Amino acid sequence: MSARDLLVLGSASAVPTRFRNHNGYLLRWDGHGLLFDPGEGTQRQMTLAGVSAHDVTWICLTHFHGDHCLGVPGVVQRIARDGVPHSVRAVFPASGAVYWERLRHATAFVDTAVIEEVPISGDQAVVATAPFTLTARRLSHPVEAYGYRLEEPDGVTMLPAELAARGVRGPLVRRLQEEGRVTAPDGRTVALEECSVRRPGQKVAFVMDTRLCQAAYDLADGVDVLVIEATFLDEDAALAAEYGHLTAGQAGRVAAAGGVRRLVLTHFSERYRAEDEPRFAEQAAAAGFAGDIVIAHDLDRVPLPRRRRAAARRRQGG
Q1: In this structure, what CATH number is given to the domain that contains residue 44?
Q2: Which sites bind Zn(2+) 2 (predicted)?
């Protein structure tokens, strides 16, 4: 299987700092590269991270505040300049189409035809169904904003002992996986569920600028990795609510409620100092999240956790 990981290209909020660039997150997934919220400077951050325009197959914008989209012109023009041959799907809130158009054609350049625009609207939108499902949910922010959830279909883990007991071997195993049932050498019909257990597919969610809302909880439900803003510490919860953001503790509550495996906190306000960083993790944990917590830093590579174990097979009979 190809690499699956998250490259953090930027982790600041509205104002970049000496150590944190504006937003940018590249999720690498089996040859696909989903670039979320490319803020100003993303093109340079990609170079520093060792990835190129050819690695991008999706551009997904949560909303049209500058720290989440001002990198679009550079990324698009680099896609054109480097002659990227494959389609690049650009997903963005339909209500901000005028901003997308300005960003997409911000300056004079030799354009490319590979950008496929996918405007989204409503409370929920299914953006793609293969080779993964990509779903967008509307969040709670002063401008229309969406979170994204990527899900791999569940698979199966074959059980060698059960296959052997039924005489299913060699090419018959592949046929059983593809067709769901085969005829064994002794003439019996063997069904896939007799010789396998379900293997849960991997899931990742991106929840950027938002207040606490049901959509944030729904996006995070059962995911392996949750990339979520933690713009403020808990003592600044009033500011968070005013500006439409989350605190570290609120991000931890969302992750705990969803049974998230790895929590990636990001989008930090410039008001906090480096020595404040441990407090973000402490407040997320104090809110009830007991899993792995990552404080995002620019150019970090965050691997997906190992696959969940396949579901135990129930024995038939008494």
Answers
A1: 3.60.15.10
A2: 67-68, 209, 267
